[in-house]
Amino acid sequence: MENNRRSFLKFAGVSVLGLGSLSLLDGLTSEDVIASSGQASAEATYKKTANALTAKRWGMVVDTKKLSGRICHKMEKACREAHNIPELENKKHEIKWIWEAHYNHVFPGKTDEFLVERLKELPIPVLCNHCANPPCVQACPTQATFQREDGIVMMDFHRCIGCRFCMAACPYGSRSFNFEDPRSAIAHENKEFPTRMKGVVEKCNFCAERLAVGKQPACVEASKGALVFGDLGDPQSEVRQLLKENYAIRRKQNLGTNPSVYYIV
Amino acid sequence: MNDKPKIIIGLIIFFAVFTFPFWYNHGAVSSAPEPKLSDKAEKAKHCVRDTDYMRKEHMHLLDGWRDRTVRDAERVYEIDGKEYMASLSNTCMECHSNKAEFCDKCHEYASVDPYCWDCHKYPKEKK
């Protein structure tokens, strides 16, 4: 037989095709495929928990008149324990969900030379604003950060690749990056809530896991009435009533992010 | 064909190296491990789905649980009139509290390394 390139290529092509179709046949006749096509799989459905709290748009009102350093501290502690937030020694690696800040840093556009005395020393709790127009969601390349229908800006840690675009996009510094494994620095472990791993970003989730079982957010429970949580989309809700009766401001409103956290000052 | 001996020796060496994994592991092949059920799982008799489904599809089930819980806030998985909280740490590990014997055994055998445990917790086991 004359051996040339042409006949070799022909032979090789036919061989590959033949072997390839063999494995295809094998796949079609295997038990798995036959079983799954033959019997209809049992119908499984997903639904919300029966006692879940729902809203059109979740929001929060912080009444600074009811605030004190002690209450702020309690709220932080409640959040830390509910979400397994580590306490890291290195300040640069700090993980923050809710923390306290000075008025001038919370409202940099509203600082005054002669600020009311009360606000000069008062620690003000800051957290993710769960903006209606969240820049972090737009920045996220993997859709790990997304906005739920009820307005909560959530993180899907499974999808986070740790690029930190969201941290650059957030004008409130509400996001923290796990520069190290947080597990060793968790003082009080909540067994029902997962930890995070090194290399993901995290932030406040408005206690989505607590709302799902009919509970108010952990910080709200610990706040002794200084924080009120409710539905901004419902004119009858407590938060809307509070906003009707009190003058409230929001952080960096001029940026157009439309925050859902209001501060009565 | 003056280089016949060289070629043959080369071929022998090539085949020896190429088939190294086969004959090196010959006889060392262990049978597939049987995951060991905890007492609680044993008593419960049935899992969320039947054993066959769980064996083949548990990773897809967990994937579905994860996506629906996190992204759609739908945390209840309902099947055959029974409702389960879709949670790895709080539902699965409640019965299958023996991660080393139940999960790791097969995962190690199949050389898969799921990263669930980087974040999700499992019950501490007595050694």
Label the structural class of chain B. Answer: mainly alpha
The DSSP helix count of chain B reads 6
Q: What is the H-and-E element order of chain A?
A: HHEEHEHHEHEEHEEHHEHEE
Q: Give the DSSP E fraction of chain B (strand runs of 2 or more residues).
A: 5-15%
What is the molecular shape of chain B? elongated
Stretches of chain B where pLDDT falls below 50 for ≥5 residues?
none
Helix and strand run of chain B: HHHHEEHH
| Count of structural domains of chain A | 1
Low-confidence stretches of chain A: 34-40
What does this structure look like?
The complex is a heterodimer of chains A (265) and B (127). About 3% of the residues of chain A have low confidence. Chain A is of the alpha+beta class and 265 residues long. In chain A, the strands form four sheets. Chain A has a four-stranded mixed sheet. A two-stranded antiparallel ribbon of chain A has the order 3-4. A two-stranded antiparallel sheet of chain A has the order 5-6. By secondary structure, chain B is mostly helical. Chain B has one domain. Helices cover 53% and strands 6% of the residues of chain B. A two-stranded antiparallel ribbon of chain B has the order 1-2. At the A-B interface, strand 1 of A face helix 4 and strand 1 of B. Strand 1 of chain A pairs antiparallel with strand 1 of chain B, so a sheet runs across the interface.
